[in-house]
Design brief:
Length: 248
């Protein structure tokens, strides 16, 4: 008997079958690739943390991370401690770099949840670094990064990235000409927290003044710059109680 392929029943059964097959295939792929995905996330996070503290393979203008085959060794060499700050408690945890800031932010909407703040301590050229992860919102999607400070809370380096900022405009937050401007910047005026603004009307375009609490904005990316500045204010401020103990 010929099958009626135009009937509603056939359409429903065919669609259901395809959903089941595709779902099973995706579940299989996700399961089989889970280890590789986890490993890639580890590599990327370690590369980003090291980049912020100046451990990279940059030339004069390019952004070049420590290579994948060396990153685990370099991370264990330069990162001396990983901390998790929860309220007033501070504990060491070698897996702190795997904490998902997006999930922590969502969980913290519950007033009974104690947010976990990962902090990384590194040593390079006899300078002690404290590397702080940050996450916020740009024009179109998430932006994130790492800010490395010394024990006087002066910025020693940063790394920023994005999920979907405009190519050639907001996407330039991950370019050298922008990230390098943050080195030497202060976010404290004495004991007063000021943050670091990304200023379109900055009167210091060469970024020679490191105590004006601002860097020059990227042309045509005002909202991305504002989002990045808000991200720095929001997340650096959460670490302030611990960071201030470093200056005592």
């Amino acid at each position: 008997m010929a099958r009626n392929t135009e009937s509603n029943l056939y359409t429903i059964l065919f669609t259901t079958g395809m959903v089941v097959i595709v779902g099973a295939l995706l579940a299989f792929l996700a399961s089989s690739l889970k280890g590789k995905i986890t490993e890639n996330k580890r590599i990327e996070k370690q590369q980003n943390i090291l980049y912020a503290m100046g451990v990279n393979e940059n030339d004069e203008t390019s952004v070049k991370f420590v290579s994948k085959d060396k990153v685990a060794s370099e991370f264990s060499t330069y990162i001396t401690k990983q901390l998790i700050i929860t309220g007033t408690d501070v504990v060491e945890d070698d897996m702190a770099y795997l904490i998902d800031l997006k999930k922590e932010t969502a969980a913290a909407k519950n007033e009974n949840y104690q947010r976990r703040l990962p902090l990384f301590m590194g040593m390079k050229d006899n300078i002690q670094y404290y590397i702080i992860p940050v996450r916020g919102k740009g024009l179109w999607d998430a932006i994130w990064g790492y800010v490395a400070v010394d024990n006087q809370l002066v910025v020693q380096g940063v790394f920023f990235d994005h999920a979907g900022e405009t190519p050639g405009l907001g996407s330039n937050i991950k370019e050298r000409f922008f990230m390098d401007d943050f080195k030497g910047e202060h976010f404290l005026d004495g004991d007063l927290f000021k943050g670091i603004s990304v200023s379109k009307g900055n009167s210091d375009p060469k970024n020679l003044d490191k105590t004006d609490f601002e860097v020059d904005a990227i042309a045509g990316s005002t909202i991305t710059g504002d989002g990045l500045a808000a991200m720095l204010r929001k997340d650096l401020k959460m670490y302030l109680p611990y960071l201030k103990t470093l200056k005592q």
